[in-house]
From TrEMBL:
Taxonomic classification: Eukaryota, Metazoa, Chordata, Craniata, Vertebrata
UniProt cross-references to SUPFAM superfamilies, sorted A to Z: Zn-dependent exopeptidases (SSF53187)
Entries under Gene3D superfamilies matching the protein: Zn peptidases
Record flagged with keyword Lyase: no
GO biological process, one term: protein processing
Protein name as it appears in the record: Nicastrin
Organism of origin: Gouania willdenowi
Homology family: Belongs to the nicastrin family.
Annotated keywords: Glycoprotein, Membrane, Notch signaling pathway, Signal, Transmembrane, Transmembrane helix
Domain of life, source organism: Eukaryota
Membrane topology, from the record: Single-pass type I membrane protein
Name of the gene: LOC114458456
Compartments it resides in: Membrane
Domain Nicastrin small lobe as annotated: residue spans: 23-197
GO cellular component, one term: plasma membrane
Transmembrane intervals: 639-659
Amino acid sequence: PWCGVGCNSVEKKIYVHLNYTFPCVRLLNATHQIGCQSSLSGNVGVLHELESEENLDWVLTSGPNPPYMVILESRLFTRSIMMKLKEGSGRVAGVVVVAPNTNPPEGFSPHTACPNDNSGVYTENYDPTLAHCNATVWNPLGNGLAYEEFDFPIFSVKDDNDTRVIRQCYQDHNRRVNGSNPQFPLCAMQLRSSMSAVTNTATCKRRNDINFSLTPDRVCDELGDFNIWASSRPMNTTTKGHKEFESVVIAAARMDSRSFFFDIAPGAESTASGIVTLLAAAHALRRATQEAPPNRTILYTFFQGETFDYIGSSRMVYDMENNQFPLDLDNIHSVLEVSQVGLHSDSKLWLHSDPVSRKNSSVKEEVEKLVNGLKSASAGLNVSVDEPDVSQPLPPSSFQRFLLARPIPGVVIGNYRSSFTNRYYESMYDNAEYLNVSYPENMTSEEQLEHFPETVKTLTEVATLVARALYVQAGGNETQLANITADPQIVNQMLYSFLVRANNSWLQQLVPTDFTNHLADRPTNFYVGVIQYFSEPTTLVQYMLANMTGSVVNVTQEDCQNTLAPPLYTYMWVQGAAPPNSTEREGFCVRSTVHRSIAVSPAFELHEYTTSNYSTWTESVWKPITGRIFLVASHDLEMLTLGVGITVLLTSLVLTYVISSKADILFSSGREPTSATY
């Protein structure tokens, strides 16, 4: 109903809603579920700010008003504390983690110590001595927290206005004074993140197939998106399977990352450094591969979903094996994968290869050739490269899925020797700050795009190294190497777009008009997501790669969008830049060899939801995710209020009955005479 200008919602007077919350959500695979959830209506608990691990006793044992909603500073968001809260979950309603404005110096990785264990090449069947990270623990700081299951909600909030409101409410109503227990009313919080899926992927997929209505509800969706790939020369994509006389060198990088919390996956070092390096290398090779084409084709490949048991790479290998891709495995000459390559002080690049396949003399020869090519390409650059012990296994990498199919020569290049140097692997702290990508605060966005942080210079050198090595590996003439140099301007623009904000003038020129609304004023979220929804990094990489490797063709927008089509090229109309003193952009048509291929695990194609051969990760569907704080009265007062209310109700019912039964007496009046006149 309408009310006057001064009318205020009663709900707004009772609750303060939290605007910027990031939940932990539930994921499932073939064997179990991980993540967090609340009850259907949300979990409610009295706020308690944990000051130290010793202070846990108040929450788990002695506090008089359980269950508690625990506020954690990021330094207390550790495996030790979280597992104790999990064990005492009867007294824990939920957890709120306050994300700091600066990264914790001690490092933090909620991923496992052995990423993608059991889904790579190193199993008991391949080489038992190398399985399960027996030879080297790649992520020593990994505490596995992101792979635990919690039966209460866990949210992250930024250290901003929301956090100040929460803390003020706690200070005013819940903080103990001189050792005495706080008095009612107390500040409470409700967190709602109800998940629909339970148990494992097989269970949730079976429930998806149960149709009791015309519009059945799904309970989970498979993780996945698209791989992006482009070839250095045109390739007929309508014919699938083996191509005669075609030999390709795959240049690979991954496109995804994750953290403990949904929608926060900055992936600066773990993902963005590799993407930017390979894109810049592809850009540096554009002219050389056109003017002096090497004997072999370079296939720039960006895999999606690699964090979750190599979704993208396993699907591409599966498609190649089943003639569902324009190439097959026989067409692959070798692989060069760009892993984490953000160089910090006194670090170098390490060239990793597989010791098992190197026992094959022809594979060994080609690997040594690729390693020597990388070492030679580093000459004259401020980048030092080296090779670890040849008996050491490969790090977690997409290349492992190709080796599972057959022995293929390949090298994985990274900034680590026997364990990741990334102290924030797969966490919300693997951000621009960690990669030293920062800009003076007084700069405008345009000025920042022209300002080169130190990381830009080092990644430009790495991109030049990769480009030259790829050209030689593809059979190119070494006399061309001096002309192959990465552009620091391009590197800076890409880093800025991925790690600071995608909504900038440079990237706006490279995308179609209808995509500009998707460019966000925040860092890119590299979480793979589910196949039903738009993926930000995939689309950004697609448009960047097209502009880096393609060419402008002089056709109209209509011809570009409708008439021109594969099999050799793809065409896209991008909005271009606006000339000075004009708001009308000058769009143009980009012709490229960029394509998308499905990046959904073969397990879902085969309906094998319990397989260990492929990724089976799904994401639960959930109800609306919300958080709010409010004041709660004591239980005794609530019971008293309820009792008084019931008493008033019963009394009113009795009075109503009595009055109704005696109505003819109570409300009777003398009858007027019929002859009365007025």
